TrEMBL record:
GO MF annotation terms: efflux transmembrane transporter activity
Span of the signal peptide: 1-20
Similarity comment: Belongs to the membrane fusion protein (MFP) (TC 8.A.1) family.
Keyword Transcription regulation on entry: no
GO terms for cellular component: efflux pump complex
Multidrug resistance protein MdtA-like barrel-sandwich hybrid domain residues: 114-293
Annotated protein name in UniProt: CusB/HlyD membrane fusion family barrel-sandwich protein
Organism phylogeny: Bacteria, Pseudomonadati, Pseudomonadota, Gammaproteobacteria, Oceanospirillales
Length: 452
């Protein structure tokens, strides 16, 4: 029990002794003959009012200089820490002027003309004729495929078409023959009809047998059926012909499709462009619909960026909005439209004519968009703006908060609307941790023109 009491007491004594020792080292050693003067100077130092030699105003009063608070080494410090002095700040004189705004944004590069080439049938890659990044011309061979099934299908459909066309020709010849035979059949029918009439008259006069009349009548009826059958065949010919012609058109369409499949075995570039990606290798077996390569037109690239609504670029002539990326590529605004769901504006940028573009579709790029600002603005550093809506002005040794509207950026700061700021006002540029209106400040350095 005694040990638990003695140990904390010893620790406290050691800490107190160390504290007294550190404060004794920091205290100035007074000379024997100057004890009273040293005591007076110490009291003034504690009050922060040591006068500087030769610094007096015209009324003969001593100018008091504010001394920084001593931090001390002990937990309580010296007496100077009991008072908070004015915060030293740097200020900038407000200079309204017409300026061109800038804003740095990130966008996505997209190709407005691009194509994904896919396999139209099962095939094997025989050879690759280009590499990724190669420039190609319209119609240039990109790769060669092989597919026996496509060739066989094409040959089968061509054979079917030849057979069908032969059938159409046979039907046409048969129709001509039916037309000629119909005339003969009609003449034979007329003859048979006369025979029937004659034997009918003879039979009524009992000059011929009944069997002769019946034979003649059967011949007539048979000839009549023959004429009727041939007329029916002739009447059906046109419908039969239309059916055969429809079958021929269907086969011709199938042949064209099969021919396209065969032609697709030698893949060509659909337009002038750059090979963005190749997804296959030589010797690979492809399935129908599998991606082979991707090609894009470098002259049809565009960068799409989102611009905060506060910049209101939609109110400016589109030709006045320009941009430049980190590679020095120049871009010109093409269109701008609002994006309702995000409260932003979608800006479309196109490469300036004659410029070389090295970006790939789908890549991200940082661009600095520049645009004119019609109203006067004041340029302030980034450190001067709080919460994107407020700055502080040093006025008669104290801070005053001022609401602002950011109209643009520069490389080093913001461009804020000048309507809420008086020319020459001292804008605080030092970044303060917890600034408040009325907070005491002292100007350590001011740019030319700043009000004290």
């Amino acid at each position: 029990m005694l040990k638990k009491v003695v140990v904390p007491v010893l620790i406290l004594l050691v800490a107190f002794g160390a504290y007294k020792l550190m404060n004794a080292d920091d205290a100035p050693k007074a000379k024997p003959g100057n004890a009273q003067a040293q005591s007076t100077q110490t009291e003034k130092a504690d009050a922060g009012q040591i006068p500087k030699e030769g610094d007096e105003n015209k009324d003969g009063e001593e100018k008091k200089e504010e001394q920084p608070a001593s931090r001390g080494r002990g937990p309580m410090g010296t007496g100077v820490l009991a008072r908070q002095g004015a915060t030293s700040v740097e200020v900038l004189a407000a200079k309204p002027a017409i300026r061109r705004g800038q804003v740095q944004l990130f966008g996505t590069v997209e190709a407005r003309q691009q194509a994904t080439i896919t396999a139209t049938s099962t095939a094997e890659v025989i050879s690759l004729n280009v590499n990724e990044g190669d420039k190609v011309s319209k119609g240039q061979s990109l790769l060669t495929l092989s597919a026996d099934s496509a060739q066989e299908t094409l040959q089968q459909r061509k054979s079917a078409l030849a057979e069908l066309e032969a059938g159409i020709r046979i039907q046409e010849l048969k129709h001509k023959n039916d037309l000629a035979s119909l005339e003969i059949d009609k003449e034979l029918l007329a003859i048979s009809k006369k025979s029937v009439d004659r034997f009918s008259s003879l039979n009524s006069q009992q000059l011929s047998s009944s069997s002769d009349y019946e034979d003649t009548l059967r011949t007539y009826q048979s000839q009549l059926l023959s004429v009727q059958a041939r007329e029916l065949t002739i009447a059906q010919y046109e419908d039969t012909r239309q059916q055969l012609l429809a079958q021929r058109e269907s086969l011709q369409s199938q042949i064209r499709q099969a021919q396209e499949l065969v032609d697709d075995l030698n893949v060509h570039a659909p337009f002038d462009g750059i090979i963005a990606k190749i997804d296959i290798v030589a010797g690979q077996e492809l399935r129908s619909g599998e991606t082979i390569a991707q090609i894009y037109n470098p002259s049809a690239l565009a960068v799409y960026v989102r611009v905060p609504m506060r910049y209101r670029l939609d109110l400016l002539p589109i030709s006045d909005i320009k941009a430049i990326d980190r590679n020095g590529q120049a871009w010109q605004a093409r269109s701008i439209r609002p994006i309702n769901e995000t409260g932003a504006q979608r800006l479309t940028l196109e490469p300036v004519a004659g410029s070389t573009n090295t970006h790939l579709p789908g890549s991200h790029v940082s661009v600095t968009v520049s645009y004119p600002i019609a109203q006067p603005t004041v340029e302030v550093p980034f450190t001067a703006v709080y919460d994107q809506q407020r700055i502080y002005v040093a006025e008669q040794g104290a801070l005053r908060a001022t609401d602002i509207e950011i109209l643009g950026n520069t490389k080093t700061g913001y461009l804020i609307a000048a309507d809420a700021i008086t020319e020459g006002e001292s804008i605080v540029t030092t970044r303060l941790k917890n600034p408040l209106t009325g907070m005491t400040v002292s100007v350590a350095r001011a740019n030319t023109g700043a009000k004290p």
